[in-house]
């Protein structure tokens, strides 16, 4: 069996199966063993772990996961990769491959059946166009997860980890930091992939909180307010919320809630911490 992770073996397996990269799936396969080692180390994979891999591709990282984890489940959407995965993973008896769309799977049921409901670790080299929906699906559905270690577009990783006042800070930063603690593991240049993407990538680890770091009475309202606050970045918080079709607060209610936080009514969303958004939401919830 060819050990993947270097360009020669990757090219050989792609040629053997006459595989063609599909742009619609955002396919970029890792061809750097040092990066693979970093991902496995960062995810702290051990023989007691059940690992869910999203988008295994030809099985490069899957091989590394199988060597280190107790059990691996890999979910692949592209049917042309399924026979390749059967080949590249044929020597491992601790892996199962599901042909399907991760966003359509009942992951809670899957974790219950495969790991007795105990928290799993997620590892993925995510297609950039679908990174945010996948991350939010895992968090919002409250799938039992210990950590998520993923390769994403560098710009997205910076947004996930950004702090208030930073140009990258926004709705994604707040959502990720409500559910987890982000840690930037490594920057990964384009030459570590085949085909080479036009942009840089980064590995980020999101360690799931057992409880969110802030208390809020209405979680759903919190995220509607956060989304509205960043929909039009240049607008003040007052105008952002008033222009949202998702909210129905009037100007006086919004200004009153802002003043409770000792902020000027010209404040923008990027100046609010997660804690301040939670307090702001609780003030506005009383108005409903």
Widest sheet: strand ordering: 4-3-2-5-6-9-7
Ranges where pLDDT stays below 50 over 5 or more residues in a row are none
Question: Which architecture of the largest domain would the CATH scheme give at its second level?
Answer: 3-Layer(aba) Sandwich
Mean pLDDT: 91
Instruction: Determine the strand fraction and express it as a percent band.
Output: 15-25%
Structural class: alpha/beta
In helices, the fraction of residues equals 25-40%
The largest pleated sheet is described as: 7 strands, mixed
Order of helices and strands: HEHEHEHEHEHEHHEEEHHHH
Distance between the termini: 62 Å
CATH topology of the largest domain: the name is Rossmann fold
CATH level-1 class of the largest domain:
Alpha Beta
- CATH homology-level superfamily of the largest domain: Vaccinia Virus protein VP39
Helices, by number, come to 12
Q: What is the rounded Rg? A: 21 Å
Q: Outline, from the CA principal axes?
A: elongated
Counted up, domains total 2
Tell me what the structure shows.
It is a single chain. With 288 residues, this protein is α/β, with parallel strands linked by helices. The chain folds into two domains: 202 residues, Rossmann fold (3-Layer(aba) Sandwich); 67 residues, rRNA adenine dimethylase, C-terminal domain (Helicase, Ruva Protein, domain 3). The protein has twelve helices and nine strands. The strands form two sheets. A seven-stranded mixed beta sheet has the order 4-3-2-5-6-9-7, sandwiched between helices. Strands 1-8 form a two-stranded antiparallel ribbon. Strand 2, helix 3 and strand 3 form a beta-alpha-beta unit. Helix 6 packs parallel to helix 8 and helix 11 crosses helix 12. The radius of gyration is 21 Å and the shape is elongated. The model has no long low-confidence stretch (mean pLDDT 91).
């Amino acid at each position: 069996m060819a050990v993947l992770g270097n360009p020669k073996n990757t090219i050989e397996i792609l040629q053997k199966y006459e595989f063609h990269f599909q742009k619609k799936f955002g396919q970029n396969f890792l061809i750097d063993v040092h990066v693979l080692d970093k991902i496995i180390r960062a995810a702290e994979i051990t023989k007691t772990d059940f690992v869910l891999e999203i988008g295994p591709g030809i099985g490069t990282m899957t091989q590394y996961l199988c060597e280190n984890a107790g059990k691996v489940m890999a979910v692949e959407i592209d049917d042309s990769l399924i026979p390749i995965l059967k080949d590249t993973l044929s020597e491992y008896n601790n892996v199962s491959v599901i042909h399907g769309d991760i966003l359509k799977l009942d992951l809670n049921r899957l974790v219950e059946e495969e790991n007795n409901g105990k928290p799993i670790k997620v590892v993925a080299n995510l297609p950039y166009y679908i990174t945010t929906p996948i991350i939010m699906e895992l968090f919002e559905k409250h799938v039992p997860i210990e950590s998520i270690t993923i390769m994403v577009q560098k710009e997205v990783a910076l947004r996930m980890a950004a702090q208030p006042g930073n140009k990258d800070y926004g709705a994604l930063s707040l959502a990720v930091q409500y559910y987890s603690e982000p840690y930037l593991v490594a920057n990964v240049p384009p030459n570590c992939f085949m085909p080479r993407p036009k942009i840089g990538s980064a590995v980020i680890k999101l360690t799931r909180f057992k409880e969110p770091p802030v208390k809020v009475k209405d979680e759903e309202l919190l995220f509607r307010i956060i989304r509205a606050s960043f929909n039009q970045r240049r607008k003040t918080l007052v105008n952002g919320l008033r222009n949202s079709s998702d909210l129905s607060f009037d100007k006086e209610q919004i200004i009153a809630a802002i003043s409770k936080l000792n902020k000027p009514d010209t404040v923008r969303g990027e100046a609010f911490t997660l804690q301040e958004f939670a307090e702001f939401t609780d003030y506005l919830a009383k108005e409903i």
